[in-house]
Amino acid sequence: MNEAQIDLAHTVALGLIDDEDHHAIQTIIDNEDPTLCSDFRRELRGTREVLAVIGASTPTPPPPSLRARLLAAIEAEEPPVAS
């Protein structure tokens, strides 16, 4: 697989395909090269598995001071500064 095909598998896994992507996917699936189709499906599965692990992970809560800093920044009409 080339980089464009790998990127396309990632795009499919994220659910971000458009008409052009759909055509490219169909071309890969309809391709007579079974290795290309198999590699594409494997990349797609792997990406979906990684996304599932990331989605199931426990998020880190923001620091308690974040809310107060954001509200103070909004009140002062200044953009918040990341620390």
UniProtKB/TrEMBL annotation:
Keywords: Transcription, Transcription regulation
Stored InterPro entries: Anti_sigma_zinc_sf, RskA_N
Pfam families: RskA_N
Ranges of residues in domain Anti-sigma-K factor RskA N-terminal: 6-52
KW Transcription (keyword) present: yes
Protein known as: Anti-sigma-K factor RskA N-terminal domain-containing protein
Organism: Nocardia neocaledoniensis
